[in-house]
Amino acid sequence: MTLREFFHAHPRCALGCSGGVDSAYLLHAAVRTGADVRPYFVRTPFQSAFELRDARRVAEEAGVRLEVIDCDILGIEGVAANGADRCYRCKRAMFSALRKRAAEDGLPVVIDGTNASDEAEDRPGMRALEELGVLSPLRMCGMTKRDVRTASKADGLFTWDKPAYACLATRFAQGERITAERLERVEAAEDFLRGLGFSNFRVRVAGEAATLQMPRSQMERAFALRDKIACELRRSYARVRLDLEPRDDDV
Predict the structure, then answer these.
(1) 74 and 47 in contact (C-beta within 8 Å)?
(2) Which DSSP category does 169 fall into?
(3) Rounded distance, CA 134 to CA 112, Å?
(4) Are residues 23 and 104 in the same domain?
(5) What is the mean predicted confidence (pLDDT) over 42-65?
(6) How far is Cα of residue 37 from the mean position of the Cα atoms in its chain?
(7) Which end of the chain is more exposed for a tag (fewer CB within 10 A), N or C?
(8) How many domains does the chain have?
(9) Kind of pairing, strands 202-206 and 209-213?
């Protein structure tokens, strides 16, 4: 199956649009086929503000309107406790909200940007998508992350080389309670580092300590700026550390 064939079979869909490379390309491909695919951004405290900005830009460049759905994710039972099933509970809540809104808007199918590189055993949220009947056209058509990036670059999408970005909840180890205030501190720390020109990094939190995980290509610069970084992040954390094991440089 190709994406064109998918959208000919499903011409009216609601798309969970995160502003990332996968959902951006999926929207672009859908519009190109003439399908009525409307993007929805489910806004929770787990999403950084720049993600919504990117999603708005994705929709604008595709020539469609982005709809925003607010979801009180921390109010969902078990999510704030950050147990082993947090991702499942979160994904189910977000796409339940999207499915409800899609039905209200007369859209019979809900789709998302899961691609063929995503392994189900590593993605507990994918179980929630299956239970809710959410379709993943990229995965169904066998398109890997590399395929999506290549096609996005060829079509001139600004997202083609955007690094993968997991939600802010992933910055906390399993069992570390998640609060709105803790999420705000992580987002502020990562915004600061992004403002210094760093990319594809993470600020991991354990108690009152923040650990920076940087790609190998940016480790030297992070160390050179350690005093500036530590000074800023100590406004929010008692200890600031640099993980000596680098993240993968690949986007």
Answers:
(1) no
(2) G
(3) 7
(4) yes
(5) 96
(6) 19
(7) N
(8) 2
(9) antiparallel
CATH of residue 106's domain is 3.40.50.620
Q: What is the mean pLDDT of residues 60-85?
A: 95
* pLDDT over 60 (residue 250): no
State the residue range of the domain holding 200. Answer: 179-242
Q: What distance in Å separates the CA atoms of residue 87 and residue 176, rounded to the nearest whole number?
A: 14
Distance CA 113, CA 111 (A): 7
Region label for 15, one of left (φ > 0), alpha (ψ between -120 and 50) or beta (otherwise): beta
Domain shared by 35 and 117, yes or no: yes
Query: What share of the chain in percent tops pLDDT 90?
Result: 91
- Is the domain of 104 the same as that of 207? no
User: How far apart are the C-alpha atoms of 21 and 157, rounded to whole Å?
Assistant: 9
59 with 117, same domain: the answer is yes
Q: What is the pLDDT of residue 251?
A: 44
Q: Kindly state the DSSP code that residue 172 receives in the 8-state scheme.
A: B
Q: How far is CA 147 from the centre of its chain?
A: 18
Task: Assess whether 137 and 183 both reside in one domain.
Answer: no
Q: What integer pLDDT is reported at residue 120 of this predicted model?
A: 56
Both 210 and 94 in one domain: the answer is no
Domain boundary among 119, 154, 189: 154
Residue indicated by tokens 């056209």: 137
The answer on 73 and 109 residing in a single domain is yes
Residue 124 pLDDT > 80? no
